[in-house]
Amino acid sequence: MNTILMLEKNLSVPMATGWLIADLAEFRGKQELYTGQSTQKLKALREHALIESAISSNRIEGVEVDPGREKIVILGTPAFKDRNEEEVAGYSSALNWIHSDHADIPISESTILRFHKLSRGDIWDAGQYKEKPVDIIELSPDGSRTIRFKSVVPEETPGAIRDLANGFDSALKDVRIHPLLLLAALNLDFLCIHPFRDGNGRVSRLLLLLTCYHLGFEVGRYISLERILEQNKERYYETLLLSSRGWHQGEHDPWPYINYLLFIIKEAYKELDTRVGEMATSRGAKMELVLDALKKFPAPFTILELEAACPSVSRDWIQSILAKLKKDGRVTCEGKGRGARWTYRKE
After folding, report:
1. Radius of gyration of the chain (CA)
2. What per-residue confidence (pLDDT) applies to 284?
3. Is 120:107 a contact under the CB 8 Å cutoff?
4. DSSP-based three-state secondary structure for 64
5. From CA 216, how far away is CA 103, in angstroms rounded?
6. With b meaning 16 or more CB within 10 Å and e meaning fewer, what string describes 277-297?
7. All domains of the chain in start order, with CATH
8. Of 251, 231, 253, the residue nearest 299 (C-alpha)
9. How many Cβ atoms sit within 10 Å of the Cβ of residue 301?
């Protein structure tokens, strides 16, 4: 809990951080307007966010599944083909637990261990702390390895996690530090403790979602925080490196990472604001909505993904637009049925 202690000693907040906090407070105030939209449309957003979160959080760690099996692995009850599918399904189980029971899930050692057990699947040390030191290694282009960060040693790890959870709870009750700063500090300190042999990043993202819920920021139900984190992955590693230097001595600079996490939450709210606006768009503008979404897809997409990007547009309307664009040579299609992959030819 080095960062929480640091914030308690110095309550001065950088101006940029203050702006982010103010923006998030405004978004939170508008939250009921977002969640009062069409139940069916919000259901589509929730399902898509669940799929994106499970896929993106694992993909950051190099764990991927066949795109054609993503939905059945996350939403179905398949026989898993490999460890990757098992881990993605386990992460989605943790997400479902948070989404349904967040009010009753404490920020505690037992919660953190359960997050790890769920997200790591049926592996020997799932839900167990590391037994050997785990250092963060940086690989240079020439193949050399340097230690970027030494995590907390195994014998001190359980106590460090308990202190972190208790310190977070005490600081929330003390109310001297803004809760959003505590949210980011908890995440940073968890990553610096690095309590597990593997899976620390995924557990940190589950903690982020849970603490957002606890503080009343429910955007993660409709927009995938993990997907936005993945889209800004380079900045994630950069700010974590900057903010972890000197962490053991309590001499680190937490603000790069704090600002990064607050930026991620703000981006999610901005996207939700856009999606909600699209839900209220008149039928005459829906063609433009679909075309705009197509221009933003960086790779081949499925109709399901296009539907999620345009929740106010029906599937029949999307299919008719794609048929017209295909006839005009502006899209191509590989495969058949719902698994078909479409590509938009950008002009």
Report:
1. 21
2. 54
3. no
4. coil
5. 10
6. ebbeeeeeebeebbeebbeee
7. 2-279 (1.10.3290.10), 283-344 (1.10.10.10)
8. 231
9. 20
Question: Quick one: tokens of 301?
Answer: 């997409």
Element (H, E) at 2: helix 2-9
Q: Which amino acid is at 111?
A: T
H or E stretch covering 91: helix 83-101
Predicted local confidence at residue 135, as pLDDT: 83
Residue 125 has what pLDDT? Answer: 94
Q: How far apart are CA 29 and CA 128, in angstroms?
A: 39
Amino acid (1-letter code) at residue 59 = R
Q: What is the pLDDT of residue 281?
A: 52
Structure tokens at 180: 């959003």
Q: Which of 234, 304, 321, 233 is nearest to 57 (CA)?
A: 233
> Is 316 exposed, middle or buried (CB count within 10 Å of its CB: 0-12, 13-18, 19+)?
exposed
Q: HSE-up of 34 (CA within 13 Å, CB side)?
A: 25
Count the Cβ atoms, other than its own, within 10 Å of residue 326: 13
- Asked if pLDDT for residue 242 goes beyond 80, the answer is yes
pLDDT at residue 129 greater than cutoff 90? yes
Measured CA distances, 76 to 82, 170, 188 (Å): 16, 40, 34
More reliable by pLDDT, 199 or 78 = 199
Q: How far apart are CA 214 and CA 246, in angstroms?
A: 29
The residue ranges of DSSP E strands in the chain, in sequence order, are: 135-139, 145-150, 331-334, 341-344
